[in-house]
Design a protein that fits this description.
Length: 360
């Protein structure tokens, strides 16, 4: 082989190496993992939201999840980034899990979920409750109930209104729309899209989501809503399956666009947060007829380029983990170290891991 050809091959090989390195490096250089003060009560099925510069977690799965089911938790904790400390707040008015949570003008809004029925046992029922929590006053106020009773939906605020999308609920025509839902009770994923106006305390119905799902991830970028992944079919049942579908909703036109780039790791029941025009999804689970597992994956979606990036994985796999962004940090709190209904409360964690974004 001539020296000229050897030099040409060397240049080509070097080019491929540089290309591969530059394609993989940015995702690995976008931040680092830190550990902060753990939550006082280890739990899963908790939800995080940022309000007035502080972090709040709400909800929680039954203490006996996976073994001897008990009532959902009523946890409300406030975290101060300035002091790295947690403070217990007034509990939720109704003990609920699988709730949807959003923030608007310093208030926290909680929608739907599963509550604890009178009489004990395993009587967890669906609720259409809507609540407003005022962190400044540490007080709860009942709001107009959701038109559609459901749990495991997502809630996002756009333009002063809160959109509650998807979830799971009873099949149409169910004799008792408040009856308990289990893996053996017929139920389905929902495409429901309803909007709540805090100014008027009224609900309106919007264009349904093309792919019905529950336990999805969500984010708002550029005034548009992105629903990512989640679970098809029912919830907490082997008949369910995850999806990697990403769909875009425009509230100004009440319309759904064409499907976007699929998420790299199909999953449900994890955490999400938005930072500088990107939506970050972390953790979650695969729970179907073939596999029960929790995920460590941390991935980000850029709606502008319609591309995904893979970032350094979470320190431990978790589903039912709470997540929110404060400043340049993506906080991931609590969760379960395995998939749903495997291992019970022994696998609930108090971990408070943070992915700190670089300023690139």
């Amino acid at each position: 082989m001539s020296s000229a050809i050897q030099r040409m091959l060397a240049v080509v090989a070097t080019g491929w190496i540089v290309l591969l390195f530059t394609a993989a490096s940015p995702a690995q250089a976008q931040g680092r993992w830190l550990k902060l003060a753990p939550i006082p009560d280890p739990s899963e099925e908790i939800y995080a939201v940022t309000a007035n510069g502080k972090l709040y977690i709400l909800g929680g799965a039954p203490v006996g999840e996976g073994r001897e089911p008990g009532p959902p938790r009523v946890l409300v904790y406030e975290y101060s980034p300035a002091t790295n400390q947690w403070a217990k707040k007034k509990p939720m008015a109704v003990a609920s899990r699988h709730i949807a949570v959003a923030e608007y003008r310093g208030k926290i809004y909680v929608f739907g979920g599963e509550a604890w029925a009178q009489g004990g046992g395993t009587n967890q029922i669906l609720v259409e409750n809507s609540w407003e929590y005022d962190p400044a006053a540490d007080s709860w106020k009942a709001l107009a109930p959701m038109p559609t009773i459901r749990f495991a939906a997502v809630a996002v605020e756009v333009g002063g209104k809160i959109y509650v999308i998807g979830g799971a609920g009873h099949h149409p025509g169910a004799k008792d729309p408040t009856a308990r839902i289990t893996a053996t009770t017929p139920h389905r994923a929902l495409e429901t899209n309803e909007v709540y106006d805090p100014a008027t305390n009224r609900w309106e119905t919007r264009s349904p989501m093309p792919t019905a799902r529950n336990h999805a991830f969500a984010g708002v970028v550029g005034g548009k809503v992105y629903i990512i992944g989640g679970q098809l079919g029912g919830s907490f049942t082997s008949a369910a399956s995850n999806t990697d579908v990403v769909e875009e909703y425009d509230p100004t036109t009440d319309s759904w666009g064409v499907p976007r780039a699929r998420m790299p790791t199909s999953r449900s029941g994890g955490a999400h947060g938005t930072y500088r025009g990107r939506i970050y999804v972390a953790g979650g689970q695969t729970y179907d007829a073939h596999l029960l597992t929790a995920h460590r994956a941390l991935e980000s979606y850029d709606p502008a380029s319609n591309q995904w990036s893979i970032l350094p994985s979470m320190p431990s796999p978790r589903h039912g983990v709470a997540g929110t962004v404060i400043g340049n940090r993506f906080h991931l709190i609590g969760g379960h170290l395995s998939a749903a209904n495997t291992g019970g409360p022994a696998l609930h964690t108090d971990a408070h891991d943070v992915f700190e974004f670089s300023d690139q």
